[in-house]
Amino acid sequence: MAVTQSSLQKHVAVLAFPFGSHGLTIFKLMHRLASASPNLHFSFFSTKKSNDSLFSAADIPHNIKPYDLDDGVPTNHVSTQHPLETVELFLKTTPENYKRRLEMAVAETGRHISCLMTDAFLTFAGEMAETLDVAWIPVFVAMPYNVSAHFYTEQIRQLLINGLEEESMVRIENQTLEIIPGLSMMKISDLSDEILMGDSGDSLFSLMLSKLGSVLPKASTVVMNFYQQLYSTDLLKDLKFKLPGLLNVGFLTSQLPESDADSTGCLAWLDRREPKSVVYIGFGTVVTLPQHELVALAEALEESGVPFLWSLRDDKVKELPGDFLERNRGNGKIVARAPQTQVLGHVSVGVFVTHCGANSVFESVANGVPMICRPFFGDHRMNGRVVEEVWGIGVKVEGLVFTKNGVVKSLELVFGHEKGKKMRENVRLLQETVMDAAGPGGSATRDFNILVEKISRF
């Protein structure tokens, strides 16, 4: 970008949603934008815990500065371990916590905000941008199927109400969403509670998400953590109609961060295994596996005899069956944290056992690894449907719950069945597709360059 007096004054405020991999996703996008636009200044707003992790890398561009937000957690707070507890506490402080830090960033830099780039979940950011009289660029981390469902929440809820009056709950849950463009393969049971229930109840998170369908069309540009080539024709056409400024910049977390060190020796351990022979197990930072499922998974791994690498928090290791670690010391490795991108890219990994979070699915696709899916909440069930039935690159566990027999069946299918061979071929083809799109002349590169131009011009 040519250096101009106006470009030197640009100040992009980046507002993260500091939970799961949301913070990392928008951080990675900002990192790329800052490297491509050295004359723009970027202020990044997230919680201290999130910032400490994200900014621990040594290669942060000079034109990025972090600001710590109040996380809303009271002093001496005793956690209930509910997955949305910290989210709800955080949302009680919004949007005021963001506004205070924005004012600080403007005062410290001497530059007014020229553009507001935020996680799309922060639906109040549209109003903030309007007040500041600047462009709003929401970044959607989840798959576009999830975005589409938020545009049709009223129709979905009416479908549910009508069905409940006429059919049993089991039949309603299995009803497909044929009325929604691009979602004909989805079932009502795949949808999150936030979509089905909306703003009913007292959840601030549900209330925030219930506004997605109405606020996203007001954005200057909507950025998707996705590739244009992976949409169905109907889905892409419908979203482009609703979001004319839609940009698909590709998977934002699949590129290997230089700081992703292998302090636990996972890669050296994988080096000693046969190609495509290892099961990698990881459920992200939010999901906690119930003890009975953790035990069932461990027993299935032991019975199958398949080599495994398991990313499992230290406090959960004690819930494993007695002597499990000793009995499987030669065949398995358990670590508190694995460098997931590097692990999935290793030639020895043959399948990824995952909760089906969007970024985990994307990283698996980017590395050509099929999946065994155990969805938990949010968009996980929709993602699992895409993995198994739309793309044909994985299988959901029987009954969507880990049992010893169910996991053994899934492992046998992936490693020994003809369907497993087909999954490997399908994911290899998807990997090639996204690599082409991410290349110098690819669609994701083109859309990223358009985004660079836009934030430089706003």
From TrEMBL:
Stated name of the protein: UDP-glycosyltransferase 3
InterPro entries, A to Z: UDP_glucos_trans
UniProt entry tagged with the keyword Nucleus: no
Keyword line: Glycosyltransferase, Transferase
Keyword Metal-binding: no
Species this chain originates from: Litchi chinensis (Lychee)
Example GO molecular function: UDP-glycosyltransferase activity
Gene3D superfamilies reported for this sequence: Glycogen Phosphorylase B
Stored Pfam families: UDPGT
Family: Belongs to the UDP-glycosyltransferase family.
